[in-house]
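Let's practice the habit of predicting before peeking. Look at the sequence and jot down your guess about where helices and strands might fall. Then scroll down.
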Amino acid sequence: MNCIRCNAPNAPEAKFCKNCGTTMITPEMQTKTDHQTIKALLIIIGVDYLLSTVMFLIQKATPLVSHNDGDFARIDLVYKVYGWTSDIVTLAVMLFFLATIKNQTVKTALIAFIVLRFIFMLGYRVFPFFL
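Done guessing? Here is the structure:
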């Protein structure tokens, strides 16, 4: 592939021109990368919300099937540890994506998801109104 600025020959996988340093990424390549990033982000967010919903349903169904307080306390402890861990890991992954994504539209959407996730974490973990 030749450089669009100085026309120097470069390797097909080159990201920058070896002669002038101009980026070799074409708009088509950038669009493909953006689409892959958006798909990965949506998959992570979707899996996170699916797991959160499943764990919420498990916690709400547990008192109905558990009559022994010792069992309930153990299940509740596991749920709390899992819940905090999943919340922190999810926020860390989203913040990592936020730092690495260059597309402003995706960044804006990701900021909205991070804010929603943080509100969910505070509302459910710190202020459990519906327990």
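How did you do? The mean pLDDT is 76.
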